[in-house]
Amino acid sequence: MQWTLVIPLKPLTRAKSRLADTAHDGVRPGLALAFAQDTVGAALACPTVSDVAVVTDDELAGRELAALGARIVPDAPGSGLNAALAHGAAVVRSLRPGAPLAALNADLPALRPTELSRVLSAAAEFPRAFLADAAERGTTLLAAGPGRELQPAFGTDSRSRHRSSGATELALTGVDSVRQDVDTGDDLRAALRLGVGRYTAAASAGLLIPGS
């Protein structure tokens, strides 16, 4: 099964506010872009991914991620994360009606294509499935098989909400890179320990991050 991934990305100037204790206002937009670049690059290198659609209205991010091979979908609803994902899924399905879809976070800078492939292969066994994040409260990936609606419920306690929506939680080990999203300084340290992609490595090189 070849998947289309839908990745939402808010305007870079508003991204990653919870990293304020680790990176100042002038640095955070560059970090957010680097996270997205490493995420998209790894996703496109995954053997079970056919294409990646990034939903964003950020012009810089759109140019840089399109250069990596992503399709850029304008965030027409402009109504937040779940609306952006639903819109991106609808655009993809208008072009590929039978495509299996997966929503993926844009802040997975340590993402490994082989681990993502394992997650998607496991998700293919269910109508809808999701993977919890490293903190075990959120979600980093939500998958919907052919003919199934994505029904995104990202945000606070999304793990519980996706489970309540009928999606199957994937109980996988050895896929830490797909679970490790980055919202806080502790998250960034954890991602750096896993080993981040080249864009995040460069963007974080000047930061003093104890414990990384």
Task: Report what the structure shows.
The chain has helices at residues 28-44, 59-68, 81-95, 113-123, 158-164, 176-179, 185-194, 198-203, and strands at 3-8, 49-55, 71-73, 101-104, 128-132, 139-144, 168-169. It is α/β, with parallel strands linked by helices and 212 residues long. The chain has a seven-stranded mixed beta sheet with strand order 3-2-1-4-6-5-7, sandwiched between helices. Helix 1 links the parallel strand 1 and strand 2. The N and C termini lie far apart (37 Å).
Structural class: alpha/beta
SS summary, helix count:
8
Strand fraction equals 15-25%
Q: Given the C-alpha coordinates, what overall shape results?
A: globular
Mean pLDDT, as a whole number? 94
Rg over alpha carbons:
16 Å
* Span of the ends, CA to CA: 37 Å
Spans of at least 5 consecutive residues whose pLDDT stays below 50 are: none
Series of secondary-structure elements, N-terminal to C-terminal: EHEHEHEHEEHEHHH
- Per DSSP E runs of 2 or more residues, the count of β-strands stands at 7
Report the biggest beta sheet as strand number plus sense, adding barrel if it closes: 7 strands, mixed
Estimate the helix proportion, in percent. Answer: 25-40%
Spatial arrangement of strands, main beta sheet: 3-2-1-4-6-5-7
